Amino acid sequence: MDIFGVPHQALLGQVMLGMVNGAFYAVLSLGLAIIFGLLRVVNFAHGAFFMLGAFIAFLIGRNLGIGYWPSMIVAPLIVGVLGILFERFALRRIYGLDPLYGLFLTFGLVLVLEGGFRVAMGSSGHSYPTPPALRGALDLGFMMLPMYRAFVILVAVVVCAGTWVVIEKTRMGAYLRAATERPDLTQAFGINVPLLLTVTYGAGVGLAGFAGVMAAPIQHVNPSMGSDLVIIVFAIVVIGGLGSVLGSAVTGLGLGVVEGLAKVFYAEASTTVVFLVMALVLLLRPAGLFGQEEG
Amino acid sequence: MMAMPPALRRGLMILLGLALLVAPFVPQVIYPVFLMKMMCFALFACAFNLLLGHTGIVSFGHAAFFGSSAYVTGYALRDLGLTTEVAILAGVAFSGLLGALVGVLAIRRQGIYLAMITLALAQMVYFTFLQAPFTGAEDGMQPIPRGHLFGLVDLSDDTTLYYLVLAIVAAALWLIHRIVHSPFGHVLRAIREHEPRTRSMGYAVERYKILAFALSAGLSGLAGSLKCVVFRLASLSDVHWHMSGDVILMTLLGGMNSVFGPAIGAVLISALRHYFDGLGAWVTVVVGLIFILCVLVFRRGILGELHHLLARRPLARHRLKEQPNASI
Amino acid sequence: MKNSLRLAMAAASVLALTAGAASAQVSGDVVRIGVLADMSGIYSDLSGKGAVEAVKMAAEDFGGTVLGKKIEVISADHLNKPDIGAAKAREWFDTGGVDMINDLANSGVARAVATVAKEKKRHIIVNGASNMGITNELCSPYAIHYAYDAYSLAHGTGKAVVENGGKSWFFLTVDFAFGIGLEEQVSKVVRDAGGRVVGAARHPLGTTDFSSFILQAQASKADIIGIASTGADAVNAIRAAAEFGATKKQKLAALLLWIEDVHGLGLPAAQGLSLTNAWYWDMNDQTRAFAKRFHDRVGKMPNMAQAADYSSTMMYLNAVKEAGTDDPDAVSKKMREMTVSDMFTKLGKVRVDGRFMHDMYLWQVKTPEESKAPWDYLKLVATIPAEQAFQPLSESKCDLVKK
């Protein structure tokens, strides 16, 4: 069966792959949206923390023999701690300034991290083995989908749903939401807002590190794996609405699918279609698809 | 620069001018082609700062203007066989118009959203050039002949080209200086400081912003065109967002609150990259650290810090009292 | 005020004097060879440090001096960017006193540097790139295309696969001069043999996730998936093809494969693949001796480009010696008169268009059982004589070729 002149297998196949990409976009934009929502910091280093997560998983796997499953927890934890240190000693100093300084500061961090890893590990990629339990492929009829990629989609949905639950349904999440709206009042109620900010940054970049571990078997670990990804994730967060957590996750998945579709019809444009959508959204509905107009 | 005694300032300018005039005769001290590259980036950074420092608008997509002008000039020289000055003007006109177009779209929003629009539009420009057949995509547009200035002067000699680039960049920097210190520049600064008040005074703020975009883009394009002529090559790196990041870095390092501060940032970053390129990725790390330092402790940039230090001297403070509108 | 002006003038004169002194030192007493390679990027394994060492070995084996002048080897990383490569070449020729630039892995860089070489009238020898432009529209008396090129790869692997029944092709091409040039040459071979090209997908250099491209290849239903990429790109593409089940119905043709790629894939994944290489370490005693010395210095076996770096440097130095000068025109003439007989080839000669003529070879990757030792990966299938392996002069677009 042909849809728009394209065999349906090709279409479904690319949409499927698009959902895998969308899974990464969702988890990454989740972290970025949370950080922007609470800290008002445009965390350009999000891609670098993604890369960090992947490299840590690779290094502890190679040097300490720690496998994929424990790495899924250990690597994001390490990334989170490093994020907390950065927030405490660097990011904190520029709160209250023009948000552009946050962007510049985190951009500097990107250069340091990427450059550092390039010096230590070289520019070319290192392969990370797919965990044995997830090798093999599922025959979906229209394509063979490697099990690992199906797993990635599942995990992303679980993580996004879990994060949403934490933010909307728990007390911690309530503090977060309160601090986002009125940090002064929240502090007046006795909640340690600076600590909340620190922990939030750590959690946000920890999510990025987690995405990095997930990406390692697919993308091969290399220092620049985060950098082209990060501007797309930015675009996604802007489309979804800076600060809307659910919005960015949904937008991430959705745009992954849009990219996949673009690959079928006009493959070269697939990397640019996200920016086209962002420009349109910004011009027509500036708060983003799910966001609220800034007061 | 206001706090420096005029004699010292003049002396430094003369020294710089002499050094630049003499440079091509001593290629062992400093490679003339590298010097030309530095001049192009100094112009690029100062042009970019028309938007950032003087109008308060951050553009994440300035590489689009720099690189598209380079491509247009390259096309004009290589495929249309035009003379060099016409080719350069074509590039500048293109990037100026592109700047106006981007401006019209971008200024509908503010702050970070404006910046993201410029990024999105720049990515689309990048994509267009990646796909266009005449650019040669990853291989770059080459070889581009340097052409003849006014159809007469052969520019393939590096020394001849050097003096042309020096003259053009000096003129362009002088133009930027004039723009900043003109009534137009005052309005831009007013917009940066307090837009609603400026609007309430009757100024058509949108038109000023668009014009600022066009000027900044056109002059950035001039830098790109010159670089294309010097290296006989225009490539995707010229329109890539890394290039946009570079120019922001140079401006921040040099000091965005002065006219020529960004030029100093451009010179430093270019020199760092040129003399230490044997160290590979270490340069990236160092540049990143400089960026971080600039944001944390060095926000005024080099020129700004210098100015601040000098402004503390009693004589300078007296002089500053007479001119409250000095930078910073 | 007067004081500061005087100060300025004094400083300027000091500057002028020191500048004058500095310009007295010049590099005329050294024969300098620059290795412009990919030192840190995706092709750094194929080129990189190995290339530099190969050239250094040649300089040392030659005796360290030629015509009483010292031989110096320097290197730089072009980062796979033509503008950086061209700028470096320009600087080397202008102020670095470099007489010959070698390796030039990456066709985009090689093309850009070939233009600079023609303009500055200084020598380059291309060993790590395949694009045909070096001996066609960009040819000059100063550029030599030594090791392999797209035509020979197409007429080696391409021809063999088509003749084995691979009639319909889908290309997976890396999106710059190398991939595009190779795809062009192989497409011609396929069409000339009565086959057809069903489609092509271009991917950026350094792609790690080939899933969507493999899907496109599968959707095309072509017999053959032609991989016009190399190094890590080819390795990742081949792995993805297996992962997504493409190899069940389609065959892979790796149009430029190196022993490093076989090493990266592992014999179980790579066995049976055909590849065209100009040289292999295990061909004869001479190649084995060179390979052992290289292995001791670098830690891995040399590939055809690195062997060519060594051989071409030797040829250049010999030409300088016989010409009695390092003047580029004299050396150019000498290089085109000499016959090369060394560990690289038994009968090699530089043609008028800059093409170094030598035999090419078609190899097949051994099965794990056939391989008896580390790096014992290839078995010889056929020898392609020089006259058949390379583009005939009648088809050349080089303006040095008299028609």
Structure characterization notes:
The complex is a heterotrimer of chains A (295), B (328) and C (403). Chain A has a single domain (2-284), classed as ABC transporter involved in vitamin B12 uptake, BtuC (Orthogonal Bundle), CATH 1.10.3470. In chain A, 71% of the residues lie in helices and 3% in strands. Chain A contains eleven helices and four strands, in the order E-E-H-H-H-H-E-E-H-H-H-H-H-H-H. In chain A, helix 5 crosses helix 6 (171-181) and helix 9 (227-240) runs parallel beside helix 11. The N and C termini of chain A lie far apart (50 Å). Chain B has 328 residues and is mostly helical. Chain B has one domain: ABC transporter involved in vitamin B12 uptake, BtuC, CATH 1.10.3470. Chain B has 14 helices and two strands. Chain B has a two-stranded antiparallel sheet. Chain C has two domains: 30-148 and 281-358, 3-Layer(aba) Sandwich (Rossmann fold); 151-277, Response regulator (Rossmann fold, 3-Layer(aba) Sandwich). In chain C, strand 2 (65-66) and strand 3 (69-77) form a beta hairpin. The radius of gyration of chain C is 23 Å and the shape is globular. The model of chain C is unreliable at 1-27 (pLDDT under 50). Classes of the chains: A mainly alpha (295), B mainly alpha (328), C alpha/beta (403). Chains in contact: A-B, A-C, B-C.
